[in-house]
Specification:
By secondary structure, this protein is an all-alpha fold. It is built from 13 helices and no strands. Helix 7 packs parallel to helix 13 and helix 10 crosses helix 12.
């Protein structure tokens, strides 16, 4: 329709144009009736062409609508609907059905491609090779990729820190954990045997830490007999690490002894990197000693799984050794009493 309006405007310009008027009125002077007849003769083919174009344009638009209406339906569906073999569906349902079938077809093709790629990517031994190039780090942030610079780790890797030799008291406690069944799921130990040489990795010592925490939860009744003087020295020393769980275990222990946070945090060597400096503990039962918190703290000190900048003093080592020996004896006494 926009094209038709443009064409009509051009015809009007021709009528207004003086050159066209001169062409129409060219010749001898004639009467007004003769001039009117000449103008009508000039306009007649123009109007006829406009009407023909409008009729042709309307027919083309109608055919285009009919084409769009049946677009997307396969011929077999149109034939079945025409002869009454299937119920005629509206356009929206047919389009949805066609899209669903197309998606199913593409999904089946994608599954075949995935299976083919998996089969072709396996090496001779049947293992899938590593997708990361050799010598490049797997973990990178988006900003580091754009900067093309390696990402600096905030905390030192455990592999960069050498493991310390285990003391006699922690070995005795680990043997007690083994006898009580807290190391039965340790896949690094041989069956039916406690081998101290198997605890020379960070994984095995972390396993001991979680086993000791579970031991504390199961033996809460012996907490009331633990030496308070040695435990208070450990509480005043600070937090064994920057991990949130370990930090709040130490804070709950200080809360039990009514030790102010700023008293400990002000002289802590980890305060520059800690996110919980001078932060107190709210909620929870801090009126009673939590043995699980105690075991978490003293085992970290005994295994020396502490940041490298922290130096454990001989006084703290002696207090931790005394506490471990005391807890093993109390646990054995309670176990014997329950057997009787």
């Amino acid at each position: 329709m926009a094209f038709l309006r443009t064409l009509c405007s051009r015809h009007c310009q021709k009528l207004i144009n003086p050159q066209i008027n001169a062409k129409v009125l060219k010749g001898p002077v004639c009467s007004s009736s003769t001039t009117s007849n000449r103008i009508l003769d000039y306009l007649r083919p123009t109007l006829s062409t406009s009407v023909q174009f409008e009729v042709q344009f309307g027919a083309d638009e109608l055919r285009h609508e009919n084409k769009n209406k049946n677009h997307g339906k396969p011929l077999d569906i149109l034939f079945k609907e025409a002869v009454g073999l299937t119920e005629k569906k509206d356009d929206s349902e047919s389009e949805r059905e066609i899209e669903t079938n197309e998606l199913k077809r593409k999904l089946r093709k994608l599954e075949k491609d995935v299976r083919r790629l998996k089969a072709s990517s396996k090496d001779e031994k049947g293992k899938i090779p590593c997708v990361y190039p050799v010598g490049r780090s797997k973990n990178k942030t988006l900003s580091a990729l754009f900067r093309n610079k390696p990402v600096k780790s905030e905390q030192p890797k455990q592999e960069d820190t050498a493991l310390k030799e285990l003391s006699v008291d922690i070995i005795t406690f680990m043997n007690h954990l083994y006898r009580e069944g807290y190391l039965k799921d340790a896949n690094f130990l041989p069956q039916n045997k406690f081998d101290i040489s198997c605890f020379d990795t960070f994984y095995s010592r972390d396993f001991v830490k979680f086993a000791a925490e579970k031991f504390g939860k199961d033996n809460q009744e012996i907490a009331k007999w633990v030496s308070g003087s040695n435990l208070k020295k450990v509480a005043l020393f600070g937090c064994p690490s920057l991990a949130k769980k370990n930090v709040f275990a130490a804070k709950r222990l200080r809360k039990f002894f009514n030790i102010q946070e700023d008293t400990v945090c002000s002289k802590c060597v980890l305060k520059e990197s800690c996110s919980f400096v001078n932060q107190g503990v709210w909620g929870g039962d801090t009126k009673h000693l939590n043995l699980a918190d105690v075991m978490t703290i003293i085992v970290l000190y005994a295994l020396e799984l502490v940041p490298p900048e922290m130096v454990i003093t001989d006084e703290i080592k002696a207090s931790v050794s005394h506490l471990l020996d005391e807890i093993v004896k109390l646990s054995s006494t309670v176990s014997q009493g329950s057997d009787i």
